[in-house]
Write a structure and sequence with these properties.
about 725 residues, alpha+beta, Four Helix Bundle (Hemerythrin (Met), subunit A), Helix Hairpins, about 35% helix
C-alpha cells in the first residue's frame, strides 16, 4: 500500500516551504538572542513552525526530522502553556539553532538525492534533559502555587511570560466565509490512515481560511490511526469555497470510503467537534442578536462555568466578539469587510537553472542585435534605411526592457546572507567566550543572484577574522578601557554600478610591525626597501597572501593562512576587490567592492593599436582632446597632464599592455578621464568606436590573471574585446 501513496509531486513543495520556515526561524531566533527571553510572539511562532515541519515531515515519512521537530515543539509548548521561571535563554537559543542546522542538513541530503539518515538521538537526549530542567525549576512555583500565594505582577521574574488565558479564536470571517464540518470514513483495510488523513488536511490548506482537525496529533501519536479507524476523521473548515470544490479536493477512492460534508453556522463552527463542556464562552452577535457559544479547542478540560447575563455594549453587525467569564470585559476582534473570492498566490517558484538559461538567451539576443545593427552591408551608400532604423529602434527598446525585467528577477536582497553572518558571529563568539554585538546596515541592498553565491564564503572568513582576531577578550577590553561587549558591523551600499560590503569591528586593529616581521620571515619583503617605505595599505595587503597568518597557534577558526587568500580569489573571480583599513586600538574595516551584476552592462568600445577594449560607462567622466604642451614628463618616465588647472596621471593603454603598434602622439588619440573611488587618471587610447551594451563573459581559466582586465565580450562584428577593470588601472 505504501507504493500507492506517491509523494513525488509533494517533495518540491515540502522542501521549498520548509526552507522558508527554517530561514524565518533562524531570523526570529537571532533577533531574540540578545534579549533576556523569548517574547510571546516568538514562542508562538517557533511552536507553529516546528508543528508545521513535524506534520509535513511525517507525511513525507522523514522520521528523524519528525522526531526532532516534535521534541522542540514539546519544549515550546511547555514554555507557552506553563510559563516556567529562570529559563536559560542562551542555552535555549543554542538548542533551537542546533535543531535548525540538523533539519537543514537533512533537507540538503534530500535535495541531492541522498537518504536523510541523520541520527538525532543525542539532540533528543539534550532536549529531554533541558525540558526536565525547566520543568523542575517550575515545579515549586507553578500556576496553582502562584494563585494560592496571590503572587503580584511585580514579583514575577523578568523572563517569565504572562499571557491571558488561552482559548481558540477563529480567524476573522467575512460575509463570503462559509463553515463546514467534514467527516471522513476510511475502509477498514486501509493502511496508514493517519498519513492519509494528513494528506486530506494538506490538500484543503489551499482553500482554507481556518482549519482544525481531530485527532490533532495524527503524525506523532501512533494511537491516532486506531482512533481514526474507529471514529472517523473530523475536520472543521472555514473557507469561501463551495461544497463541490471541497469534494473535488477530498475524493472518495480506494482508501476513503465516505466523505460527509455539513455546512453550518459560524456559532456551530466555533463550538468545535462536539457540544459538550464549555470553558470559555465566545459570543457572536449579528444584526438580530443571535448568540452562540464555543468550546476551548486546545485547552485543558478543567471544568467550565456558565457565563452570567450582563448588559453588552452595542455591537455592529458582522463583528466578532470575545466574551470572557468576567462581566463587562469584551474585546472587539475585527470588523466584517466585504472580500472578493479567494485568489491564488500571484507568484511561483522557478528552478534556478531556468533563470540562468533565460539570462544566457538574453545575452545571446543582445549579441545578435549588435551583429544586425553593425552589419557592414548596411553601410553601402544610397540605401534607404528609414524603415530599418525605426524597426531597429523598436527592437533596441524591447531588448532593453527585456534585460531590465530579467535583471530585476535575478536581483535578490542581501538579507539572508547577512543573517547567516549573524549566526556565525553568535556561534564563534559563544565558543570563544566573547560578548559581541552584531549590527546590520543596508541588508536590503539587492545584488545579482550569482554575486550572492560568490560572496557568502568570503564574507564568512571576514566575519570569523573580525570575531577571532579583531575583537579582544572581555578582560582585554576592560583593561584597555573599552566596553566589554565588542561590536561587529556589516554594511552594504551601492555606488556607480558597484556594491560595497564592509565588515567593521571595534577591536584592536591590525599590528603593522607584527605583519612586517612575519612578511620578513617568509621572504616577502624587498631586502633593498626599508620598512618605512611600505604604506599601511601595502602592509595590510600582506595578510591576503597564501599561507600568511600572524597567529602563532592554529585554532579551529584561524592560523592556517588560507582564509584571506580564499577571500581574494573568490572576489577576483567576479571582478571585485578587497580593501583593508585599520587603526591600532580602534578596529579594522574590510571592504569588498564588487559589481552589482555579472550579466549585461553599458560600455564604451575603444581601440588601441589593432585591439578593441571595453570600459564600463559609469567610470568614464569625460572625453578630452589634448595637445602636447599640456603634458608634463617626469625624469622617471611618469607622465601627467594639466586639464583646467587640475593635474592627472596619464596611463597609455598601448604601453600598459606592451603593444607594438599604437598612437604615440597624444594629439592623434583621445584622453578618457576615469574616476574610481575618488581617484582619477587619464587613459590615452587611439580612438573611440562607440557605445554598446555588452554581455560580460569571464576570461578563460587557463589565462593567467592580468591586471586591469575583468572579462571579455563579443562585439557586433563577431570579434572579441577585452573588458578593462578601471580599478586595476587606477590603483
Amino acid at each position: 500500500m505504501a507504493e500507492e501513496f506517491s509523494t513525488d509531486g509533494m517533495l518540491d513543495i515540502y522542501l521549498f516551504e520548509n526552507e522558508q520556515l527554517l530561514e524565518q526561524l533562524q531570523d526570529r531566533v537571532l533577533e531574540q538572542k540578545d534579549a533576556d527571553c523569548f517574547d510571546e510572539d516568538s514562542i508562538n511562532e517557533i511552536f507553529r513552525t516546528m508543528h508545521t515541519i513535524k506534520g509535513s515531515s511525517g507525511i513525507m515519512m522523514f522520521d528523524n526530522i519528525t522526531a526532532i521537530s516534535h521534541k522542540l515543539e514539546d519544549v515550546f509548548f511547555y514554555l507557552r502553556e506553563s510559563h516556567p521561571q529562570n529559563v536559560p535563554h542562551l542555552e535555549l537559543v543554542e538548542h533551537v539553532l542546533e535543531v535548525q542546522d540538523f533539519i537543514s542538513g537533512e533537507m540538503d541530503k534530500i535535495k541531492n538525492g541522498e537518504t536523510a539518515d541523520g541520527d538525532p538521538a543525542e539532540m533528543l537526549e539534550r532536549l529531554d534533559a533541558f525540558l526536565e530542567k525547566i520543568k523542575g525549576d517550575g515545579k515549586s512555583e507553578g500556576k496553582g502555587a502562584a494563585k494560592e500565594k496571590g503572587t503580584k505582577k511585580e514579583d514575577v521574574p523578568s523572563n517569565v511570560h504572562e499571557e491571558p488565558k488561552q482559548f481558540y479564536i477563529a480567524p476573522v470571517a467575512t460575509s463570503a466565509s462559509r463553515f463546514y464540518k467534514i467527516y471522513i470514513t476510511f475502509f477498514p483495510e486501509t493502511e496508514m490512515v493517519d498519513v492519509r488523513a494528513y494528506k486530506a488536511v494538506y490538500t484543503l490548506k489551499e482553500i482554507a481560511e481556518d482549519l482544525l482537525y481531530s485527532p490533532e496529533d495524527i503524525i506523532s501519536d501512533e494511537s491516532s490511526a486506531d482512533v481514526i479507524k474507529e471514529e472517523g476523521f473530523k475536520i472543521l473548515l472555514q473557507t469561501q469555497s463551495s461544497e463541490e470544490d471541497i469534494r473535488k479536493l477530498v475524493k472518495v477512492g480506494y482508501d476513503i470510503q465516505k466523505v460527509e460534508i455539513f455546512e453550518c453556522k459560524a456559532e456551530e463552527f466555533l463550538q468545535g467537534f462536539d457540544f459538550g463542556e464549555q470553558e470559555e464562552q465566545i459570543d457572536l452577535e449579528s444584526g438580530g442578536g443571535e448568540k452562540g457559544s464555543g468550546t476551548k479547542e486546545k485547552a485543558e478540560n478543567n471544568g467550565g462555568g456558565t457565563k452570567k447575563e450582563t448588559k453588552k455594549p452595542e455591537i455592529a453587525p458582522g463583528d466578532f466578539v470575545i466574551q470572557s467569564k468576567e462581566p463587562g470585559r469584551q474585546k472587539k476582534l475585527a470588523r466584517d469587510k466585504p472580500k472578493a473570492k479567494t485568489e491564488k498566490a500571484s507568484f511561483i517558484s522557478v528552478n534556478v537553472s531556468k533563470m540562468d538559461q533565460l539570462m544566457d538567451l538574453i545575452g545571446e539576443l543582445v549579441i545578435s542585435e549588435s551583429v544586425v545593427l553593425q552589419n557592414p552591408d548596411l553601410k553601402v551608400p544610397g540605401l534607404n534605411l528609414n524603415s530599418f532604423n525605426k524597426a531597429a529602434a523598436q527592437l533596441s527598446k524591447i531588448s532593453t526592457d527585456l534585460q531590465n525585467v530579467i535583471m530585476s528577477m535575478r536581483m535578490v536582497p542581501l538579507t539572508n546572507t547577512f543573517q547567516k553572518m549573524n549566526r556565525i558571529v553568535f556561534d564563534v563568539s559563544r565558543k570563544l567566550g566573547k560578548e559581541i554585538e552584531f549590527e546590520m546596515v543596508g541588508e536590503h541592498t539587492e545584488v545579482d543572484k550569482n554575486i550572492i553565491e560568490h560572496i557568502s564564503d568570503p564574507l564568512m572568513h571576514l566575519v570569523r577574522n573580525a570575531v577571532d582576531h579583531g575583537i579582544e577578550t572581555n578582560e582585554e577590553r576592560a583593561q584597555s578601557g573599552k566596553k566589554e561587549k565588542g561590536k561587529v558591523t556589516m554594511s552594504a551600499r551601492t555606488e556607480a554600478g558597484k556594491v560595497w560590503i564592509c565588515v567593521e569591528d571595534n577591536g584592536k586593529g591590525l599590528d603593522r610591525e607584527k605583519i612586517l616581521a612575519k612578511a620578513r620571515k617568509q621572504g616577502i619583503l624587498d631586502a633593498s626597501k626599508p620598512d618605512s617605505a611600505y604604506t599601511d595599505k601595502e602592509v595590510y595587503q600582506f595578510i591576503t597572501l597564501p599561507g600568511f597568518s600572524t597567529n602563532e597557534q592554529v585554532t579551529e577558526y584561524s592560523g592556517r593562512g588560507v582564509g584571506m587568500d580564499v577571500v581574494v580569489q573568490n572576489i577576483q573571480q567576479i571582478g571585485g576587490t578587497l580593501e583593508i583599513e585599520s587603526t591600532p586600538g580602534f578596529g579594522s574595516i574590510m571592504s569588498l567592492k564588487i559589481p552589482l551584476t555579472l550579466a549585461i552592462v553599458d560600455g564604451i568600445v575603444i581601440e588601441t593599436g589593432k585591439s578593441a577594449f571595453v570600459l564600463e560607462t559609469g567610470v568614464i567622466k569625460e572625453f578630452v582632446r589634448v595637445t602636447e604642451d599640456m603634458m608634463i614628463h617626469e625624469p622617471c618616465g611618469d607622465e601627467y597632464i594639466m586639464i583646467r588647472g587640475e593635474c592627472y596621471p596619464v596611463v597609455r593603454l598601448g604601453e600598459w599592455y606592451k603593444m607594438s603598434e599604437y598612437a604615440k602622439n597624444v594629439e592623434d588619440g583621445v584622453m578618457l578621464i576615469l574616476e574610481v573611488e575618488e581617484k582619477k587618471i587619464c587613459l590615452f587610447v587611439d580612438r573611440l568606436i562607440g557605445e554598446q551594451e555588452i554581455v560580460v563573459k569571464p576570461i578563460p581559466s587557463y589565462i593567467k590573471k592580468v591586471k586591469g582586465l575583468s572579462g571579455c565580450t563579443q562585439l557586433g562584428d563577431g570579434s572579441i574585446a577585452l573588458i578593462l577593470d578601471a580599478a586595476g588601472l587606477v590603483g
